[in-house]
Amino acid sequence: MARRMMSRLGQWSSYVFAVDFDTNSDPIYFALASKQSERPQVFRNVLADEMCYSLHVQSDDKIERAKFYGGLKKKLSKELPPECTILEMSIFQPNVKDSVIKGYFLKDASKSSATERVLGELLRNDPVYVCSYLCGGEDRQWSQHLWSNTEDGWVEVLEKYCVVPAEKPVHHPSTLNIINYDVFYSFEDAYKVLQQCVDIIPESKAVLELVDQRLESKEKTDFPVIVIEGLDATGKTTLTESLTEALGATLLKSPPQCLSPWRARFDTEPPLIRRAFYALGNYLTAGQIGQEARQAPVIVDRYWHSTAAYAIATAVGGKLGNLPQAGSEVYGWPGDLLRPSLVLMLSLSSQERMRRLQVRGQDKTMEEEELEANHLFRQKVEEAYQRIEGPACVTVDASPSPDQVLQQVLLLIREKCHL
Ligand SMILES: Nc1ncnc2c1ncn2[C@@H]1O[C@H](COP(=O)(O)OP(=O)(O)O)[C@@H](O)[C@H]1O
Ligand SMILES: Nc1ccn([C@@H]2O[C@H](COP(=O)(O)OP(=O)(O)O)[C@@H](O)[C@H]2O)c(=O)n1
């Protein structure tokens, strides 16, 4: 079915291809046409005389697509010649939600047949489409050639289209599939993902059992619920402990302690599955909050803001400006998740944060290592934190001494929660 769709330019013509040649600038956008365009060359300045290929995953099953795409990069890096550069590519309908098909674009300077051999194997055994790109003719125009398997095991070209430039879309393609791929806005949507993983990730069963026993939480709590957010090493642990003592409160965290045995396992999974795990963690914590907030104020170390902000920042490629605009539905609060009374985000300069990380000298999650290496990613997490609504977070300067930060936060809590 999908193959037939692909072979009809009529349907495929509403799609645009985006290749990330350089993560600090816009992708190169192109489309397919039966005739060359008069407009300038698509790959000018980014391709010389390398051989180029693209491959993208085709499967109607969301979990299979996510698992395969995640594993594909590792497989390609291992099997392709080292002179082959693997770039991220997506195919999408401009500004249409949930229309993205992810893939890779290969720039191959190896001049060996190894790449074609690897791609031929993939085409035979896996749910992928493979295309090659050629630049020819007097005007050096590019064309895309869709590969197909023949019955005797050889690869042939099924169809050939001209590659023509396409307009930059209003919404960066990486923002189109956030909902229900990277961020889940209801318990049911996250739960369904783990349910579908039970056969391939046996640990999902244990997580679902815990989640099934979660406590229900009412919309309104008797005592205030205060969430402390911020990047790693901004002082959340230090502050949540001193706050708990100062207010005679109960300290909780998301993901809750009971999920610890499975966290490392889910951290290795592709975003769809990993994010569903963290989303469910928030519902477990919500149950605990509901219970504890009957007796005393509750302090929570990370909650929904962390889940959504890290997920959005990881999903959105390239520049800060590619993030969905403030007010976008992706920054909304899930309708069925307990809302805290106040969310505070600890903010720190990158120099001071690095200094504290070094002093602490602990192991970091891969994502935290990426934060250190990638200033842009850190900026995107903080910006996403600030755009999340319902409740929005209040930014707190975390650079003064621990006691000064505590006093500042106590003042805020008294003012906003009348404690
Ligand atoms: N206000 C502060 N001033 C200086 N150092 C701090 C302050 N708050 C925390 N630290 C130190 O910074 C490091 C990170 O703090 P921590 O509370 O563990 O952060 P997080 O829980 O956000 O990762 C720790 O070594 C801690 O002692
Ligand atoms: N409520 C939460 C908490 C963490 N997380 C994820 O967990 C990572 C940070 O957790 P961590 O344990 O390293 O953070 P610290 O509490 O050590 O600062 C982030 O990268 C998020 O992806 C989440 O998604 N939702």
Q: Number of helical runs?
A: 14
E-strand count? 13
Instruction: Specify the CATH homologous superfamily of the largest domain.
Output: P-loop containing nucleotide triphosphate hydrolases
Give the overall shape, derived from the CA principal axes.
elongated
Briefly say what this structure is.
One of its GO terms (molecular function) is ATP binding. The chain is an alpha/beta fold and 419 residues long. The chain has 2 domains: 2-175, no CATH class; 187-417, P-loop containing nucleotide triphosphate hydrolases (Rossmann fold, 3-Layer(aba) Sandwich), CATH 3.40.50.
Write the layout of secondary structure elements.
Blueprint: H1 2-6, H2 9-12, E1 16-19, E2 28-33, E3 51-57, H3 62-79, E4 84-92, E5 101-108, H4 114-125, E6 128-136, E7 141-149, E8 155-165, H5 187-197, H6 203-212, E9 225-230, H7 236-247, E10 250-253, H8 260-267, H9 271-292, E11 298-301, H10 304-315, E12 342-347, H11 350-360, H12 366-373, H13 375-387, E13 393-397, H14 402-417
Parallel strand pairs: 9-11, 9-12, 10-11, 12-13
Antiparallel strand pairs: 1-2, 1-4, 2-8, 3-5, 3-6, 4-5, 6-7, 7-8
Helix pairs in contact: 5-6, 5-9, 7-14, 9-10, 10-13, 12-13
The site of adenosine-5'-diphosphate has 14 residues, from helix 7, helix 11 and helix 14.
Domain Thymidylate kinase-like: 228-408
Main location: mitochondrion
EC number: 2.7.4.14
